[in-house]
Write a structure and sequence with these properties.
- The protein has a four-stranded antiparallel sheet with strand order 1-2-3-4, with no helix packed on it.
- It is mainly β.
- The protein is built from no helices and four strands.
- About 0% of the residues lie in helices and about 75% in strands.
Length: about 60
């Protein structure tokens, strides 16, 4: 995809005792050889407590 642009439009977070569930809403724009792309979507992210901080789950990286 050329001219790719990913814009995060919002994050929604839910705090539990040892983890935080985050929903990321995004917009993806760009050009494929056959057509332009303009897609909106969401994806779940998980932050896990390690000591006194929250880190992204290793499966996300």
């Amino acid at each position: 995809m050329s001219k790719r642009r990913l814009t995060v439009q919002a994050w929604y977070a839910r705090l539990e005792r040892d983890e935080v569930t985050v929903t990321e809403h995004y917009r993806l724009e760009g050009d494929l050889p056959a057509r332009p792309v303009d897609t909106r979507g969401e994806r779940p992210l998980l932050l896990v407590r390690e000591g006194d901080q929250f880190l992204f789950s290793p499966g996300l990286m």
